[in-house]
Amino acid sequence: MSLAGLGWALGARLVAPLLALHVRRRVRIGKEIAGRIGERQGGGAARPPGRLFWLHAASVGETISALPVLEAMAARDAGLRFLVTTGTVTGAEMLGRRLAPGLAARVDHRFMPLDVPGWVARFLAGWRPDAAAFVESELWPNLLAAARGRGLPMALVNGRMSSRSFARWRRAPALAGEALGSFRLVLARSEGDRRRLATLGAAGALCWGDLKAAAPPLPVDAAALARLRAAVGGRPVFLAASTHPGEEALAVAAHRALVPRFPDLLTVLVPRHPERGEGVAAEAEAVLPGAVARRTAGGAPGPGVSVYVADTLGELGLFYRVAQVALIGGSLVPHGGQNPLEAARLGCPILLGPHTGNFEEAVDRLLAAGGALRVPLGTPPGGALADAVAGVLSDEARAQALTKAASGIADAHAGLPGRVAEALLDLLPPGQGSGSGVLVGTGPGGRDAPQGPIA
User: Following CA atoms 176, 178, 183, 185 in sequence, which dihedral angle do they give, to the nearest 10 degrees?
Assistant: First the structure.
């Protein structure tokens, strides 16, 4: 182990008491489940008999992109069991909603242990996975070191390494090389990610495509969709999907600018983090008094409601199906953008702000094919967004051309989950192993940027 690795391990041991307190604080704000905080220290193992594959998906986006792979693996190996870990409560909730009943019986969920040597050792010893894969961008040095010690075959799937994370990892080249060199298989989501991962130590990294480009259409509850369509009626609907702080205000400003031309316009705000719903609604109410309703408060987008705050989890497919145009959140502010292909699969015309680095290749393909429109930042606030929305709402032929072009891009990687599933199944040892393995991921501290001791 490198000196950097030893330093990380020592630092984690020293801060472990503070991490335990941090987890308890997160319980109070709804980001942890009180009865399951022991899982953050590696507890709660209940290993089933037979072969066990461990899949880690940090949060909601990773969970959604991994589900088709999980389903394909289960279909190909009827006796395989799965341990799925997430780093967030919302990721766990999404998993519970999306798993088909037959597959759910073969899946155990736990929260990922924090990266303290004793905690990850307890987790690995309790579960003894036979092979493992991380989705996207988690690199936990202590977990990876423990995994290497157990010899667990593992893969990094849909590997993501942003330019910012790349610059941070380059400050700790030995640590990066140890982590990425532990993988038997590294599948990057894009050529840019593959090059950065290879430079840091994943010499054999491959790029087969982005799993988020291969996900099925977002699901919908048929009864909820019928109710929503009845409430909306024939009104034009502008959707601001998966928004981040600052974007809701721009969407509301755009709404005000659009009302003279579209007097019955309904603007739907879906915050990326539903817990922000109350604040988002209050912000909109200050601009449009008496014209705002919030879904979790029982509101509906009926007559008199101009802005509807849809602050629920897992219902974005519902709103894409009723909208005539959608802004993809995270792109008007420097976040990097959310997944535009979710809208493409549901035939909703796509608007993008200037910040789309999280889905750079998908966005480039959409723009080149005429499947999305770029919205520049400008003055007055929301003015350029209002112009783009009006351009789509007032021109049905243009809207249809956008959706047709976007659909072709969204369908390009339909066979990718099956191909990835085959590669992951190849990691498993033959026969009915009792579990001896290890695991790995891509980005110290989670998501995509180093956290904790490496800042």
Answer: 50
Q: How far apart are CA 439 and CA 132, in angstroms?
A: 5
Q: How many domains does the chain have?
A: 2
Residue 431: per-residue pLDDT? 64
Both 135 and 244 in a single domain? no
**Are residue 197 and residue 345 in the same domain, yes or no?**
no
Residues forming a β-bridge with 135 = 57, 157
Q: Which residues are catalytic?
A: 62
Give me 133's structure tokens: 């894969």
Nearest-angstrom CA–CA distance, 413 and 214: 5
Place of tokens 């705050």: 309
pLDDT band for position 361 (cuts 50, 70, 90): confident
Write the single-letter amino acid at 248.
Answer: E
Tens-place pLDDT, residues 413-440? 788 999 999 999 999 998 654 444 433 3
Going by their DSSP bridges, the two strands 81-86 and 52-57 should be labelled as parallel
Residue 432 in any domain: the answer is: no
pTM of the model: 0.79
Do residues 43 and 191 share a domain? yes
Domain holding 53, by residue range, is 3-214+414-425
